[in-house]
Amino acid sequence: MKKQGTLENQVNFVYLAVGSNLGNKKVNIEKAKWLLENNSIKILKISNLYETYSWPNKNDPKFYNIAIKAVTILSPIDLFFTIKNIEKKLGRKKTKANAPRTCDIDILDFKGKIYRLYANNNKLLIPHPRLHKRNFVLFPLFEIDKNWKHPLKKKKIHDLIGKLDKTALYSIKQI
């Protein structure tokens, strides 16, 4: 029989990035937040909305992005599959990498730990491997947790933002 732990051991603190650059972007993000809440993911804090150019093709529609701090009872892999189902419900289609999409949800951090998981031909890397290079992740994340530290790089978020190039610093706008 499994011994009941403290509440902190039963829930997992996670940070998520949510973005959209197709359709009604604000509505897509609101729907994503609602679906997260209705799938064992309790949102604790949400950043403001940020607008950035699409990458790598700046001619694609601009992105709206937010960061979320949440708690969940889900394991990392269950959270991953839950997020993929939410993206699908919101109309995301499997196309080429970095193509425009109605909804994109990434797991940025899961309990401040490092995960390398493989399931059903899916590779899950936590923390997200490129989060430290992305203004659309770092600025919203800084807004909701100024003390966040990268689990792998062991760098404070302030230092990661300081390493962004000038273009990244000036090409993001809070809405």
Task: Describe the overall structure.
The chain has 175 residues and is α+β, with helices and mostly antiparallel strands. It has a single domain, classed as Alpha-Beta Plaits. The protein is 30% helix and 27% strand. The chain is built from six helices and eight strands, in the order αβαβββαβββαααβ. It has helices spanning 7-10, 25-37, 76-89, 135-144, 157-162, 166-170, and strands spanning 12-20, 41-46, 50-52, 63-72, 104-110, 115-119, 122-126, 172-174. Strands 1, 2, 3, 4, 5 and 8 form a six-stranded antiparallel β-sheet that branches. It has a two-stranded antiparallel sheet with strand order 6-7. A hairpin with a 2-residue loop joins strand 6 and strand 7 (122-126). The longest helix is centred in the middle third of the chain and has 14 residues, at 76-89. The radius of gyration is 16 Å and the shape is globular. The protein starts with 6 loop residues before the first helix and ends with a strand.
Mind sketching the topology for me?
Blueprint: H1 7-10, E1 12-20, H2 25-37, E2 41-46, E3 50-52, E4 63-72, H3 76-89, E5 104-110, E6 115-119, E7 122-126, H4 135-144, H5 157-162, H6 166-170, E8 172-174
Antiparallel strand pairs: 1-4, 1-5, 2-4, 3-4, 3-8, 6-7
